[in-house]
């Protein structure tokens, strides 16, 4: 397994231990149509002595009352993978910590984006399903609004 190096300053990390096999995380800040971002569930606390052996991400779309349309929300999941370390490079204007920060643990990561302009005002629901080598499963989902 190789480390993941992400040069984005909007990496989403969820680091609290989940007390159930299924978790609804707090909503993310809106993403712009056409934008691409990395989303990350830190499942280290849940893994304990186990290792992550599989992760899959699925995505649905809710137009709400906006009239927004996305005919293929699953296509917004560009790729997904498991990693045990993530190096995050700071933004160019970062004064607080100008050096990359590396996190270690068990992470389910997905690159999500390329939402069509027709989906503006709607909300996506990316769901990560992860299996551990001791037979346990964990599912994490979140609301991801699209900027109008």
Task: Give a verbal description of the structure.
The protein has one domain (4-145). It is built from one helix and ten strands, in the order ββββαββββββ. The chain has a five-stranded mixed sheet. Strands 3, 5, 8, 9 and 10 form a five-stranded mixed sheet that branches. The protein is mainly beta and 148 residues long. The mean pLDDT is 82. It has one helix at 44-47, and strands at 4-6, 12-14, 22-24, 36-42, 52-62, 77-88, 101-113, 123-132, 137-141, 144-145.
Number of separate domains: 1
Proportion of helical residues: under 10%
Largest sheet: 5 strands, mixed
Strand order of the largest sheet: 1-6-7-4-2
Alpha-carbon Rg, integer: 16 Å
Strand content bin: over 45%
Classification by helices and strands = mainly beta
Q: How many strand units?
A: 10
Tell me the series of helices and strands, N- to C-terminal. EEEEHEEEEEE
Q: Termini distance?
A: 38 Å
Average of pLDDT = 82
Number of helices: 1
Principal-axis shape: globular
What are the low-pLDDT stretches, counting only 5+ consecutive residues below 50?
Answer: none
Topology, pairings included?
Blueprint: E1 4-6, E2 12-14, E3 22-24, E4 36-42, H1 44-47, E5 52-62, E6 77-88, E7 101-113, E8 123-132, E9 137-141, E10 144-145
């Amino acid at each position: 397994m190789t480390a993941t190096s992400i040069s984005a300053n909007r990496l989403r990390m969820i680091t609290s231990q989940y007390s159930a096999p299924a978790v609804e995380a707090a909503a993310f800040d809106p993403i712009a149509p056409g934008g691409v971002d990395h989303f990350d569930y830190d499942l280290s606390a849940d893994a304990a002595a186990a290792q992550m052996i599989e992760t899959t991400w699925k995505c649905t779309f809710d137009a709400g009352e906006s009239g927004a349309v996305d005919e293929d929300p699953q296509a917004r999941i560009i790729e997904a993978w498991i990693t045990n370390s993530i190096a995050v490079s700071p933004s160019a204007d970062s004064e607080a910590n100008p050096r990359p920060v590396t996190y270690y643990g068990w992470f389910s990561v997905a690159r999500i984006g390329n939402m069509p302009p027709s989906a503006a005002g709607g909300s996506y629901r990316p769901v990560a399903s992860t299996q551990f080598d001791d037979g346990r499963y964990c599912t994490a989902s979140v609301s991801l609004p699209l900027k109008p």
